[in-house]
UniProtKB/TrEMBL annotation:
Lineage: Bacteria, Bacillati, Bacillota, Bacilli, Bacillales
Coiled-coil intervals, chain numbering: none
PANTHER family: RIBOSOME-RELEASING FACTOR 2, MITOCHONDRIAL, TRANSLATION ELONGATION FACTOR G-RELATED
The protein's name in its UniProt record: GTP-binding protein
GTP-binding recorded as keyword: yes
Source organism of the structure: Paenibacillus plantarum
Pfam families with a match to the protein in the record: EF-G_D2, EFG_C, EFG_III, EFG_IV, GTP_EFTU
Length: 666
């Protein structure tokens, strides 16, 4: 590895793409060209540097985000290779937060897909400067003009091609720099030239616009300088072309990382401000927390404050992880990424030190299915609980629930592929054979109308907690909004804080057993007793008041929806339309291009669980469906879905009080 003293600057870059766009292959070639690895690995043969899990090598897909690094032109580049499959979107989500720049890879054959759009919108919401890389120009069906139009229409009008393809499909041989003063090559594709770059940038840059309007000559180096400025601000997006499997466009991509993506900010001398974006368990070192530092420095044997959990822990080792290899660092400073050992209580998303420099986390991944897990025998349940808890530490969206009384284990998942991966991980890593039930859809509830919930918890003594809540429907996607209108002299602040903490817990199970969402809860009345009130009285009273209110408002069942894009050969279009009607889909008018029938619309998750397999079988493997979560919406009146309640229902107040008081006395 290049001597650290020669490092002039750094970059933190995430590599993102839809599944099968060539992301891991691109990462492998970047590492090889930089000299970081001596031989090229392959996704298909299971030798890719960033596919470290057995299941990744066996299946040829990325399951976890992988950190690696390389040096190019005296610049240290931290790369995070993220999964492309929608079932592992949570890994993408966590990686987005810690990047200063991104490479979004788009296949020149498939073009912009639903997950491409989802990742793009997340990058934009975080204002992350991004390079667009159109890959697979050597493949049959590559159509750079069409894909450029899709990028401008579906992602951004400010995508600026800086390289043009020489040849296409089997004649593709190189990427030609358009930001030079050479005349366009014969047969150059429209949009992939200097004039197109000038036209795009003139929308942002007044001097360029003036020269463009007046027809004055514009030097290529002035165009590049303008693009560098706007690209680093996240206002313009350089577009490159290549064929990673043949190493075409890789050197140009490395140069673009340095030219157009910003250096990380931060001062190593400032107090620590960092975030944990990944947790792994090492066989020898135990729990390793992958940390991005925004300010400050962490050294071996430092004691760091976990601001999220309010605990202090001592660092025992700092490592740089490169795929399957690791090297001890001893110190990591602002702007860098490393794995920190010794933080035994740390969780994904925890902030170390000051939180003010840590950017917000995007929210893209929403598990839509819940599934029960069965051990091979009763004796294996403790080991299975421990294994699933470890996996939940690494992916909190699994949201493990262990119901001891019923001896039931439940996890939340994104889809069937994730279940296959979990089965494989539990077998290879923990030696556990498990069985999953058929996944069931996660519904939600929302209040049907405005109403009030009242509870006077004054018996059996000693207790005293009186609460009145106003409960009303919220706007779609608003989640829970809670506020209190009660003055401190009516209900002490410490008791109000207890109520505020218990309201979200009380809404985890509504009248139908599902989480209640898109709801506004307002505490409008509260009363305590000077002698008889115990702080835990409000922990008991709050769920009873909330459930009594929901009984007044009634609840509406909400079902999860998918935004889908279906592409099939033209002759299957009629059958697809018929299927969609049966699945209660809503969709736009279909289009036909190049003999392919293309349709976009919204599908209920519940009616479409098996449809990808059915579509593939019907079309002889030539049909493609891509999907992304599109929120929850009210179910039709004839759809009924009720979940068995866990624990005693607070509507049965006498039984609930006895159950809770027994728990409190333990």
């Amino acid at each position: 590895m290049t001597d650290e003293k020669r490092i002039a600057s750094r970059r933190n870059v995430g590599i993102f793409a839809h599944v099968d766009a060539g992301k891991t292959t691109t990462t492998e070639h970047l590492l090889y060209l930089s000299g970081r690895i001596r031989s090229l690995g392959s996704v298909d043969s299971g030798t890719a540097q960033t596919d470290s899990l057995d299941v990744e090598r066996e299946r040829g897909i990325s399951v976890r985000s992988a950190t690696t690094s390389l040096v190019w032109q005296h610049t240290w580049i931290n790369l995070v290779d993220t999964p492309g499959h929608v079932d592992f979107l949570s890994e993408v989500e966590r990686s987005l937060r810690v990047m200063d720049g991104a490479i979004l890879i788009i296949s020149a054959v498939e073009g912009v897909q639903s997950q491409t759009e989802m990742i793009w919108h997340a990058l934009q919401s975080l204002k992350i400067p991004t390079l667009l890389y159109m890959n697979k120009l050597d493949r049959v069906g590559a159509d750079p003009e069409r894909v450029l139009q899709e990028i401008h229409k579906q992602l951004t009008g400010m995508a600026v091609p800086i390289y043009a393809p020489l040849g296409i499909e089997d004649t593709f041989r190189a990427a030609r720099n358009v930001l030079d003063d050479a005349p366009p090559a014969a047969g150059a594709l429209p949009g992939f030239d200097l004039a197109a770059a000038v036209e795009k940038l003139s929308e942002l840059d007044e001097p360029l616009l003036t020269s463009y309007i007046e027809g004055a000559p514009i030097a290529a180096h002035d165009v590049k300088a303008a693009l560098q400025r706007y690209a680093r601000q996240g206002e313009a997006f350089p577009l490159l072309v290549g064929a990673s499997s043949k190493a075409i466009g890789i050197e140009e991509l490395l140069a673009a990382i340095l030219d157009y993506l910003p250096e990380p900010r931060g001062d190593a001398e400032q107090p620590l401000s960092a975030v944990v974006f990944k947790v792994e368990r090492d066989k020898t070192m135990g729990r390793m927390a992958y940390v991005r530092l925004y300010e400050g420095t962490i050294r071996n044997r430092d004691t760091v404050v976990n601001a999220t959990q309010g605990v202090e822990e001592k660092v025992t080792q700092i490592r740089r992880i490169d795929g399957r290899k690791a090297e001890d660092l001893g110190v990591v400073a602002a702007g860098d990424i490393a794995a920190v050992c010794g933080l035994t209580q740390v969780r994904i998303g925890d902030v170390l030190g000051r939180p003010d420099s840590v950017p917000p986390a995007p929210r893209m991944a929403v598990p839509l299915l819940t599934v029960q897990v069965h051990a091979e025998s009763d004796a294996q349940y403790p080991a299975l609980v421990a294994a699933l808890q470890e996996l939940t530490d690494e992916d909190p969206l699994l949201d493990l629930q262990w119901l001891q009384d019923e001896r039931e284990l439940h996890v939340k998942v994104m889809g069937a592929i994730q279940l296959e991966i979990l089965t494989s991980l539990l077998s290879s890593r923990f030696g556990l054979a498990v069985r999953f039930d058929q996944p069931s859809v996660i519904y939600k509830e929302t209040p049907s109308q405005v109403g009030e919930g009242f509870i006077a918890y004054t018996m059996p003594k000693p207790c005293w907690a009186i609460l009145r809540f106003r409960i009303e429907p919220g706007s779609p996607g608003s989640g829970l909004v809670y506020e209190s209108q009660v003055r401190g002299e009516q209900l002490l602040v410490q008791y109000q804080n207890e109520v505020a903490r218990r309201v979200p817990e009380a809404l985890l199970q509504g009248l139908l057993g599902w989480e209640v969402t898109d709801v506004k809860v307002t505490l409008v009345e509260g009363e305590h007793h000077v002698w008889h009130t115990h702080p835990l009285d409000f922990a008991v009273a709050t769920p009873m008041g909330i459930m009594q209110g929901l009984a007044q408002t009634g609840t509406t069942l909400l079902e999860p929806m998918l935004q889908v894009r279906i592409t099939v050969p033209e002759e299957f279009g009629g059958k697809v339309l018929s299927d969609l009607v049966q699945m209660r889909a809503s969709f736009d008018a279909p289009s036909i291009a190049g003999g392919r029938f293309v349709l976009e619309g919204r599908l209920p998750v519940a009616t479409s669980l098996e449809y990808p397999v059915k579509l593939s079988a019907m079309s002889g493997g030539r049909g493609v469906i891509t999907s992304s979560f599109a929120g929850y919406q009210p179910s039709p009146p004839d759809v009924h879905a009720e979940r068995k309640r866990r624990g005693v229902n607070p509507l049965d107040q006498s039984k609930y009080i006895l159950a809770v008081r027994k728990a409190l006395s333990n």
